[in-house]
Specification:
8-stranded parallel beta sheet, 34% helix, 8 helices, alpha/beta, binds D-xylitol-5-phosphate, TIM Barrel, binds zinc ion, 20% strand
């Protein structure tokens, strides 16, 4: 199975977004990870849809959008208009998760569900058949550059087991503190998409760092 690498634009230089997006275009990145925060679901605010639209103008790869916001249903159409191909909502932010997933699909996008570090994988039992992607958070969402939570590896295994038991080919993505040291364990556990922010953008040569991660697959 192929490995998708999704560098997080949250760690890019916001004053040089065009430059950084073009760098990602020229790299082995498969997607661009776009973190939208509202200051309510998470204690931070990143950027919104006008900035995402500006990123999309220069990007030649799919936008993998991670909504860390309450009431995501309100913004699904804006996501579509701003170029999202994959939209991931948080389990913890959706009362009617099945309806939200249906709305994402109705707009022609792929749908993912993210789980905070404390949320057990078992909550996906009755929704996984409807998903294109599961996002296992390996940090508490809201900030880049945090330390990887080891328990995420166990959760990836549990997600893979649940998916296999349902004959589901759902993509298993991991987000937070991902680097070359934990990538191998995550892939072995069943992850096939890795988000990486600071590991990529704080490295001396982001293009090589992306290739290094890609090479783990
Ligand atoms: C955290 C975001 C992540 C973040 C990852 O809330 O969802 O996507 O950008 O950054 P690193 O890789 O630095 O942990
Ligand atoms: Zn993210």
């Amino acid at each position: 199975m192929s490995l998708y690498i999704s560098p997080s634009v949250l760690a890019a230089d916001f004053a040089n977004l065009e430059r950084d997006v073009k760098m990602l275009n020229n790299s082995k990145a498969d997607w661009l990870h776009i973190d939208i925060m509202d200051g309510v679901f998470v204690p931070n605010i990143s950027f919104g849809f006008p900035v995402m639209q500006a990123i999309n103008k220069h990007a030649n790869k799919p936008l993998d959008v991670h909504l860390m916001i309450v009431n995501p249903d309100t913004y699904l159409e804006e996501c579509k208009n701003a170029g999202a191909e994959i939209v991931t909502v948080h389990y913890e932010a959706c009362t009617h998760l099945h309806r939200t997933i249906q709305s994402i699909h109705a707009l022609g996008m792929k749908a993912g569900v993210a789980l905070n570090p404390h949320t057990p994988v078992s909550v996906l039992e009755d929704i996984i058949d409807d998903l294109d992607l599961v996002l296992i958070m390996s940090v508490n969402p809201g900030f880049g550059g945090q330390k990887f939570i080891e328990n995420a590896i166990k959760k990836v295994k549990a997600t893979k087991a649940l998916a296999d038991s349902k004959n589901s080919n759902v993509i298993i993505e991991v987000d937070g503190g991902v680097n070359a040291n934990n990538a191998f364990d995550l892939i072995n556990a069943g992850a096939n998409a890795l988000v990486a922010g600071s590991f990529v953008f704080n490295s001396e040569n982001p293009i090589e760092t992306i290739a290094e991660l890609k090479g783990k697959g």
